[in-house]
């Protein structure tokens, strides 16, 4: 929680105690309303109001009125019922503010300043672009999302107002006024989000990539089950066969359409940034369904030098002819015991069945194409931990996942992998850590002999 949110929660509790004569300090009766008003105004103008605090706002307003006008509840039973609900309202509002926080994204480590711009292709496809520059900028940093309540409605099956706080979150990027120019041509990275997600769901990763000197464009696929003739009720079923069918349908129907989005955006970027982007060096990155899109798209798009799939399925049809460098991240193993999976808040039989089916094609691809293929499993991560969800809604992250360390490991591995494929860098891709298991190459987990 932010400072003045915490202060308002504390003050509201004191006001309730004073209003119901549980504490009787005359000085507080006259000072607290003034202090509350000052803190509220600072909170409103400096931090911004949000729905999670609405119960506290309401209780503050009512208790101040009660104190100023000496309003009393005479009936003792009614008095204690009202007191109970006031305290409950404060606790609920405080808890919601804590569970869905105004977060800060990790600071970037690269030498470049980041600028960003929302774009739309001539065909109406929306995407966001981030550009690296060495120019000094004095403007305010960009919001994480401009209109989350409308644009993110339905994300992860949640109503849009849940994400309204994202417009209060500041990123590490500055809004681009189209006068920003990169000093020379930079490689292009295309990012593809998962089903029912959005183009900004991996902003932390994207900003780090751009700070290191890459141009990143993230597609807003505007995925919907209805769009592809899929039944959302079937998709929600916690049944192995239903999920297998869903995976196959998504690969068959959604992936080809999303690959066409890549082509549309590349065409637009060539027109808009011919002197700023190196279109001979392209990297595709995707999460979940976006990972499947990245793998399939790499076989159809020219000049793709590397592919990164974060915990996404792979089309079985491409496993025999996929010859591009690939980095694959997967979440915790389906081979864990039922007790271990339960500790990770996962349905053991369901997770094992679906995950093993999903990884079958991944395993086949690695067995058929062994050169320049890397597969790292994040032992403590769930599927959503490869996005910004650990920052956005921490309770949806895996219980033992360290978001700071996870982000650091993820970005280091990705940056090393990209640098090797584009520049022939000798940076070590295989980073050893107790939270990682290297599945491919299998030699990665063996102890390094002492010299």
Task: Explain the layout of strands and helices.
Layout (H helix, E strand, L loop, with lengths): L2 H17 L6 H22 L6 H15 L7 H24 L13 E8 L5 E8 L14 H4 L21 E3 L10 E7 L10 H9 L3 E5 L12 H4 L4 H33 L4 E11 L1 H10 L5 E7 L15 E5 L7 H6 L4 H21 L4 E6 L10 H4 L10 H21 L12 E5 L11
Parallel strand pairs: 1-3, 4-5, 4-6, 6-7, 7-8, 8-9
Antiparallel strand pairs: 1-2, 2-5, 9-10
Helix pairs in contact: 1-2, 1-3, 1-4, 2-3, 3-4, 6-13, 8-9, 8-11
Low-confidence stretches: none
Give the integer mean of the pLDDT values. 90
Helices, by number, come to 13
Question: How many β-strands, per DSSP?
Answer: 10
Strand order of the largest sheet: 3-1-2-5-4-6-7-8-9-10
State the end-to-end CA separation.
50 Å
CATH fold annotation of the largest domain: Rossmann fold
Approximate strand percentage: 5-15%
What characterizes the major β-sheet?
A: 10 strands, mixed
> What's the CATH class label of the largest domain?
Alpha Beta
Helix content: 40-55%
CATH superfamily of the largest domain: Alpha/Beta hydrolase fold, catalytic domain
Order of helices and strands: HHHHEEHEEHEHHEHEEHHEHHE
Q: What would the principal axes of the Cα set say about the shape?
A: globular
Please tell me the CATH architecture of the largest domain by its name. Answer: 3-Layer(aba) Sandwich
**Secondary structural class:** alpha/beta
């Amino acid at each position: 929680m932010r400072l003045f949110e915490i202060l308002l929660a504390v003050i509201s509790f004191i006001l309730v105690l004073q209003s119901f004569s549980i504490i009787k300090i005359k000085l507080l009766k006259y000072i607290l309303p003034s202090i509350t008003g000052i803190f509220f105004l600072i909170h409103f103008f400096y931090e911004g109001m949000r729905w999670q605090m609405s119960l506290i706002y309401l209780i503050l307003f009512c208790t101040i009125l009660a104190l100023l006008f000496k309003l009393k509840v005479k009936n003792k039973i009614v008095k204690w019922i009202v007191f109970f609900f006031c305290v409950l309202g404060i606790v609920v509002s405080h808890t919601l503010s804590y569970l869905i926080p105004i977060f800060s994204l990790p600071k970037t480590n690269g030498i470049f300043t980041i600028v960003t711009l929302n774009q739309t292709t001539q065909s109406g496809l929306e995407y966001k672009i981030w550009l690296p520059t060495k120019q000094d900028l004095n403007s305010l940093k960009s919001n994480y999302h401009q209109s989350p309540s409308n644009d993110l409605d339905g994300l992860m099956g949640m109503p849009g107002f849940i994400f309204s706080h994202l417009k209060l979150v500041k990123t590490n990027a500055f809004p681009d006024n189209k006068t920003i120019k990169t000093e020379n041509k930079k490689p292009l990275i295309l990012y593809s989000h998962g089903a029912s997600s959005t183009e900004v769901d991996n902003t932390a990763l994207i900003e780090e990539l751009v700070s290191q000197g890459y141009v990143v464009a993230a597609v807003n696929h505007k995925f919907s089950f209805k769009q592809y003739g899929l039944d959302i009720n079937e998709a929600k079923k916690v049944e192995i066969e239903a999920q297998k069918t869903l995976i196959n349908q998504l690969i068959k129907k959604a992936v080809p359409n999303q690959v066409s989005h890549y082509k549309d955006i590349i065409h637009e970027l060539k027109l808009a940034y011919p002197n700023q982007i190196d279109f001979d060096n392209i990297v595709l990155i995707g999460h979940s369904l976006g990972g499947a899109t990245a793998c399939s798209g790499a076989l159809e798009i020219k000049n793709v030098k590397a592919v990164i799939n974060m915990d996404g399925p792979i089309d079985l049809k491409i496993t025999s002819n996929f010859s591009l460098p690939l980095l694959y991240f997967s979440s915790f193993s389906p081979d864990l015991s039922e007790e271990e999976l339960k500790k990770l808040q996962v349905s053991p039989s369901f997770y094992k069945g679906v995950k093993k089916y999903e990884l079958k094609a991944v395993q086949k691809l690695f067995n058929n194409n062994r050169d320049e293929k890397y597969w790292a499993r994040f032992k403590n991560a769930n599927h959503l931990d490869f996005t910004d969800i650990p920052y956005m809604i921490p309770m949806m992250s895996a219980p033992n996942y360290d978001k700071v360390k996870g982000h650091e490991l993820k970005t280091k591995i990705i940056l090393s992998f990209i640098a090797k494929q584009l520049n022939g860098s000798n940076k070590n891709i295989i980073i050893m850590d107790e939270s990682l298991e290297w599945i491919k190459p299998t030699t990665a987990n063996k102890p390094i002999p002492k010299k």
